[in-house]
Write a structure and sequence with these properties.
The protein has 285 residues and is an alpha/beta fold. It has two domains: 13-122, Cobalt-precorrin-4 Transmethylase, domain 1, CATH 3.40.1010.10; 125-236, 2-Layer Sandwich (Methyltransferase, Cobalt-precorrin-4 Transmethylase, Domain 2). It contains twelve helices and ten strands. The strands form two sheets. A five-stranded parallel sheet has the order 3-2-4-1-5, with helices on both faces. Strand 6 (139-144), helix 6 (149-159) and strand 7 (165-170) form a beta-alpha-beta unit. Bound molecules: S-adenosylmethionine.
Amino acid sequence: MNRELNFEGESPLLYLIATPIGNLSEMNPRALSVLQETDYIAAEDTRNSGKLMSFFKISKPFISCHEHNEEESSARIIELLKSGKKVCYMSDAGYPAISDPGSRLVARCLENGIKVSICSGPNAGLNALACSGLPTEHFHFEGFLPAKESERIARLNELIPLQDTLIFYESPHRILKTLISMAATLGDRKAVIARELTKAHEEFIRGTLVELSLLPEDSLRGEMVVIVEGKTSSQEGPTDNEIALALRDELEFGRKGKEAIATVSRNMNVPKNRVYDIYLKSFKQ
Ligand code: SAM
């Protein structure tokens, strides 16, 4: 176990910095003052972060730390932090480590006795979820689905039983293929496309997966999050066992076969012929 207050003691601390997902005025003022004080900025893309920092008139040496060099770069960042230098890490947009590099850097820092803190900011998935109108009590963050269709369908099949609202990231050139795969596997559930969040052309397109998959491709430009309703009880339907148990209750209550079948069919919203088949199998053999 390890327990240490982040802002007390002498151990070095890496700051993660969340950055705007479109609207630059969402840059957290606390993040700006931490960045003013830092010695180095490690970044997923030093050119993009360089532009962001020059907008805020912050000039610091950059260290590149992206998907393909995160391990080597982490070693250098850890050395700097251990030598007493201050280092911050930012990805291209939103939260580092959320569908972005950063989680390996955090893990390596913690293994090396370096504390980690974050300057909060926007996150595309949570912005979309909050405005979706779908249940927010429980949600599953999926991020990007695999680009290969067979792998995408396989992953979506694993998500079918989840009752939590689902959050997906997608790029404009794959959005329609993804919506079609979703409709085919998850069924025609309610869904929302949240497009260009925090930007001038922010848009929420609300409908069902089939409706969204029929949208014209050229109307789906820019950055997008797809929020999909979790599995609902109406999509589930009762199992044969549940129907047999309900029939037994009705029969034990004293109803005759025909009457019990009609009651269970009505109460459970299941076709009479299915209840009848289960009745024959369970009580007449
Ligand atoms: N780390 C980021 C976060 O915290 O949200 C996510 C980075 S991920 C590489 C980029 C994806 O996030 C995009 O493909 C899109 O699905 C989503 N995204 C980012 N900015 C967005 C925006 N302004 N509007 C809608 N979706 C956005």
